[in-house]
Amino acid sequence: VELDSIVQERVEDHLKAYLSKKAVIKGNAQSNVFTRSTALSTDQVVNQVDDTSPKSMVAERILRRRSLEIRNRQQDWQGSPEGQKMIEFRKSLPAHKERDTLLAAVSQNQVVVVSGETGCGKTTQLPQYILESEIEAERGATCNIICTQPRRISAMAVSERVAAERGESLGESVGYKVRLEGIRGRDTRLLFCTTGILLRRLLLDRELKGVTHVIVDEIHERGMNEDFLLIVLKDLLPRRPDLRLVLMSATLNAELFSSYFGAAPMIHIPGFTFPVRSYFLENILEATGYRLTPYNQIDNYGEDKKWKMQKQTLRKRKTQIASAVEGSLEAADFTDFSRQTQESLSCWNPDSIGFNLIENVLSHICRNERPGAVLVFMTGWDDINSLKDQLQSHPILGDPSRVLLLACHGSMSSAEQKLIFNKPEDGIRKIVLATNMAETSITINDVVFVVDCGKAKETSYDALNNTPCLLPSWISKASAKQRRGRAGRVQAGECYHLYPRCVHNSLSEYQLPELLRTPLQSLCLQIKSLQLGSISEFLSKALQSPESLSVENAIEYLKTIGALDEKENLTVLGHKLSMIPVEPKLGKMLVYGAIFNCLDPIMTVVAGLSSRDPFMMPFDKKDLAESAKAQFAARDFSDHLALVRAYDGWKEAERKQNGHEYCWHNFLSSQTLRAIDSLRKQFFYLLKEIGLVDNLETCNMWSEDNHLIRSVICAGLFPGICSVVNKDKSISLKTMEDGPVLLYANSVNAQEFKIPRPWLVFNDKVKVNSVFLRDSTAVSDSMVLLFGGSILPTRLESRYGHLTMLGGYLEFFTRRSLADTYLRLKTELDEFI
Ligand code: CDP
Ligand code: MG
Predict the structure, then answer these.
(1) Which residues contact 721 (CB under 8 A, 6 or more apart)?
(2) Torsion of CA 616, 622, 627, 629, to 10 degrees
(3) How far apart are CA 639 and CA 642, in angstroms?
(4) 97, 124, 131, 161: which to mutate for ligand 1, most atoms within 8 A of CB?
(5) How many CB atoms lie within 10 A of CB 46?
(6) 438-477: per-residue pLDDT in tens?
(7) What is the pTM for the complete model shown?
(8) Which residues of 92-110 are buried (b: 16+ CB within 10 A; e: fewer)?
(9) Which residues line ligand 1 (CB under 6 A)?
(10) C-beta of residue 440 within 8 angstroms of C-beta of residue 221
(11) What is the ipTM for the molecules in this complex?
């Protein structure tokens, strides 16, 4: 145990020196980064409140004068022809009729909940009404209205629109602020910002000094930040009786929010939309004569295998929704449809989005339907980009010059953004491929056709939004309705749902709030980094809270990996992890990769672990695919290193313009490799921003060092570790929690008869009949010893109570004490330190 602490101390010193060196280079205010961080991040400093409260009579006179100036400028603009036109437009919005009701409610109540159809004018009008009424009441210079948006792109787009409606440019009375960007000026009184920005401001300024109104938009989405914000604001309201809070939501679950705030009054803005006709998959197949590709044609499965596979795929579905889908497919009555349609429906695979199907529907619209823009809801930007590429290279939609193909997602450029809102010339068909952000926060006026693939995922990995990445999952009925509604804005429209009606009927009513969907470990880190107090206590005050036992487990895990200390405070590592939007263990790998200057391969590993598997294993060519993968593994006993080699090879091939061929020969998915590539870029940008890397060269000084890379992988994946015992011709594996375990057939280590290292670290395990480990890497004693445990010794309950977690592992499996192990490996260790 003593020796253990010596080792730990040395690692700690090493890290300390390293981190503070990095911090000095970065010019960071935190001189000793390794002590618990209380210093503010640059972002927090940027967000320091600009205090606008009048300090003296002179100040008050100046403010009054400014207030009058603002008013006069408005009146001038309103007199101009464009101003007149804009006023007419604004008056035509459904919100206008409720203007007085809304303003009265806001002045008489501390909290008001407003709901209304998308496009009725909540976001652009309501904050403006408040601003206008404040200006009328000569409080134009002192009011300070903050309106939050869940996404940065809507904060930017909306502020631009509102400024335009007022004949101003951004930075006059209207501004915006998102992470790393913003425009606002001396006179800015209405600020659109992301929810995250307001949360961070609350950290520094718990009372929201000087703010008169907070408007929280799109609360029906139940984003994590919005739920967080509501808890904090609910606490604040009694201390700030003059502060006004308005909650705005699209769909009608206003009651929930109203009751959360003690029966706050609700105002509904009645809206008008044209009727929209719905088509489900069976109708689409019937109308277009299209047939879904059976499994056997995709992958050359034999006829038998096709049915078997299909049954298996359906059986394997674990989530509740999927079993509902399975049940409803079996129970559905498709007897009204032709035999061809019925047969085709049986080939429907709930897992695949089916680009062919989307292309077919788009082609049908372009060729046979009346003019009008098409809005396609897809799952994420990687799918959007692939489909866009595919459509551009195969002009299945007819004359390419007649089609305007656009993408709409969280990370598009502002030039692209403008094109989305513009009406194209006559005869040109605008097709917008969008993520679910086009459901409510963005309104494209000329949409007549909607194509809904039925799934959604949070904007995959978006470093700027700080959202962890999630897999596509089925949308709710409320979302489907919302998507359908987008087709009826200007005239009667049509909506094509790319799934059977019976599946629609089995969707849940509303989507689960993000707070209940987010991995709890990330959630706990967020709560800590936002300094919201005790995790369990804070979560118990939420609109809906996660189970307390799961919360406790997550806290325990965070302590084990060294992100939280014994008192549940964020450690320096934890602080960094909270800024990296991947699972904490993967974040830890990135941090260590940066510290130990082997970032490049580690970024590939982490990007790979946060996307799909790029190694494809077609059923009928399994042997070939396996040997292709084994080549990449190069008998290194690591799936992670195999991935690194496959990716590096692909990059090289791309440079020589034969990336496609390379993927084909090696059974790799180029789509996934591209996604990995883009994730890596985002990681690098992010690590740079949080001060962990300076430039590409230094952080890759050791990128060729196989041992070091392995060690860093071990640092991230511990305590995901199993012991390896080689018997003749077979390997027996054990974890401390499960006993004997097996490897997935896809793992390169599953093909080996002997693994020349005593441990495997793995990132994932799944219990089917036995426990199976996914991707794994073989590591040595010294790697586990040095990089495995948390730097601060964590007590292990039970009879290993006196040891660190790490010591417990070593003793449990090797029956050797930590000291023995240390002495035996001293020479090897010295190389590391
Ligand atoms: O928030 P809500 O969905 O209720 O509507 P909004 O975003 O305030 O938009 C109201 C109307 O303003 C929309 O129906 C559009 O006609 C128009 N609008 C626009 O033309 N350009 C924008 N960038 C935003 C809104
Ligand atoms: Mg809105």
Answers:
(1) 714, 735, 759, 760, 761, 762, 784, 788, 809
(2) 20
(3) 5
(4) 124
(5) 14
(6) 887 777 889 999 999 998 875 433 333 334 445 677 888 9
(7) 0.73
(8) ebbbbebbeebbebbeeeb
(9) 93, 116, 118-125, 157, 161, 421, 443, 445
(10) yes
(11) 0.99
